[in-house]
Design goal:
homodimer, alpha+beta, 6-stranded antiparallel sheet, disordered N terminus, DNA-binding
Amino acid sequence: MATRAAILPDLEQDHPCFDCAVRELAVCGVLESAALRAFKEAGPTVRYEAGDTVVFESDRAANVYSLTTGLLRLSKLLPDGRRQIAGFLFPGDFLGITMEEEHAFTAEAVAPSTLCKFARRQFDDFIAKHTALERRLYAVAAHELAAARQQLVLLGRKTATERIASFLLMLASRCPSMPGGDEIDFPMSRADIADYLGLRIETVSREITSLKTKRVIQLTRRHSFCIVDRDRLEQLAEG
Amino acid sequence: MATRAAILPDLEQDHPCFDCAVRELAVCGVLESAALRAFKEAGPTVRYEAGDTVVFESDRAANVYSLTTGLLRLSKLLPDGRRQIAGFLFPGDFLGITMEEEHAFTAEAVAPSTLCKFARRQFDDFIAKHTALERRLYAVAAHELAAARQQLVLLGRKTATERIASFLLMLASRCPSMPGGDEIDFPMSRADIADYLGLRIETVSREITSLKTKRVIQLTRRHSFCIVDRDRLEQLAEG
DNA sequence: CCAAGTCTTTGATCTGCCTCATGCTTGCGA
DNA sequence: TCGCAAGCATGAGGCAGATCAAAGACTTGG
């Protein structure tokens, strides 16, 4: 995905973006040194602790964000308390894909997170001048759309076992494991997983136990696991 | 949504776009007469009958389309035959939001449909020269993303009754009824509805019957209905 | 106008996941 | 180190929606 060199030649070593681990992944990845400097000047770096709300659904969409470290969840609450998590945002992901006045979903930090924050007005002015960024944003939106539609297949047609297996494979592809190790850390709770997969926490717990018993995965700690039999897991994910 | 006048002053009366009923709704809505002429020259109008496949998942995404009349469904098939419909495309909708090489979903005609077809290469060249179109495409992608995520809430957390009620309200807002009348026509079968809502056809049929019995809706013919008690229907859709 | 096929409705029964209940584990502050 | 709260696991039983079965209701073609 990211093909250019990790270090921009003309960027000062003390610039906040200089050692950003996700610049290539993020929307900023398409910007040259000068454009990147101007871009970063448009907004500060902000930090949220686990559980904090970054944006609330129906709030005016006054800002957009680029997640640099941590994990966010995008969720919606029904009047009676039922919750659906529409997706998780990983480092490099963009928060604020909309042309509407209000946010449609709540974004909360699942783990301590840092984000680059931009006023939407300034952000819009900026992309109008930088076509590459505009195209990148479209690519990101198209990619998110395909991912959301893929999740529709999971929620509409997959069994509990298939959902859990699919979820673990997604984690494996998105959560970086220790170099050399194959242990995958994930900060979300069983409740988050349940609300993402359209299940109840008891079912999530039972299915994970079942995969452990069948020696498909191994639970190292509560929030980390290893894939023991990847083929079998992929098989289980498809049905 | 569409704010400009319905008729472009400089467009010839015999131009295929002249009496296009959905030009304002479609991506073309942002183009001036000259740009629109150039745009339309880039691709022919094509027609598909009910059941025809417009694009197949995993096909190379060589073309993009703008739907002018009819109805399409976007679907995905699991290896064992389970099907999920990710969405329906109504006149004015755009088909081909992706930066990938391949289509992720199959698009089929639910009713006889006409589309403006564009080679993707030419389409990309064109949008690079017309910023307004590029922004409009981003707006469309963002809108579709929000709709898909809203559908995730339905599939993950709503009951069968809530799903059907939500679906009927969506139809009411998107299927134009006869002027003066409140009868809503929809061409999709019970199987399509079931695969869109993550239910079985028997459940769809039972829920529709139940709403009819409760005098919330009235079934005029198999593929058309009237909303008798809209407040109640909206109440049922939310839970 | 009728025959044959397809789509839809309705009924009876089954089952996967939910609900409710309880105990266990883990982490954290006193 | 202990105690307590929050999160997680596990068991028993229930229910919404699936599955199986069969009978209407349109549609199409001869």
